Amino acid sequence: MKNIYIRLHxxxxxxxxxxxxxxxxxxxxxxxSSSFNYDTGKYGGTDRTDSIxxxxxxxxxxxxxxxxxxxxxxxxxxxxQVIRVGGSPMRMTKGGGGAVSTSESGLGDILxxxxxxxxxxxxxxxxxxxxxxxxxxTANKNKGLGTGELDEGAGLEFAKNVSPGWTVLADGYYxxxxxxxxxxxxxxxxxxxxxxxxxxxxxxxxxxxxxxSALLDGNSDPRDLSGTxxxxxxxxxxxxxxLLLGLSDGSPDLGLSAGLSRRF
Length: 264
Prior knowledge:
twelve-stranded antiparallel barrel, Porin
């Protein structure tokens, strides 16, 4: 396991160094985005967890990749059985629950993410990027808003235009999850696949199926289906809204999101 950690750390650092050393794009080098995300579910227990997640992301584009920093705000009502890992709610305990529910809010875990384009051959080609992810433990562990530990991950992102207006998507990531005192989390493998479809000149639909391995043995692997509509307005803003449906006890039953982004 130590060798895997060292190799992943090297891959993560290589992705960021490659993106930093690449020449900057010539126009609209930056993008700001934010969204309001609400999800609710029992995650295999008897008690419901409701959370509101509001990330603020600043992304810097380069000719061969990008780097993004996300600073989120989080409010969660739960019995302490569910936490955010990499921005997604995950069950961190076993058993049925029964504890008193409390509401906590504050800063979430800051996420730093970079991608390096491995292959990009233009329209009707395969696009492949290497991604690195770092989760900084800025969320308050005592409030149940995070694990209080550093996470590192790396993966590949694939996209292929199969016809005008249709793009097939597939991503895979492996993340080393930091272990709080007294807890032995599993490292996490995440896979998603789906498509992006142009509905009109300015409106796109993206649908994804995602599965992730559970943090603890015996818990259900999170699996969900999501759909997002993205609209590009004449004022230069992009508006988007999404719906998530949980397909297993490890996922929220329902998730709703709405947000906007703008390049400059």
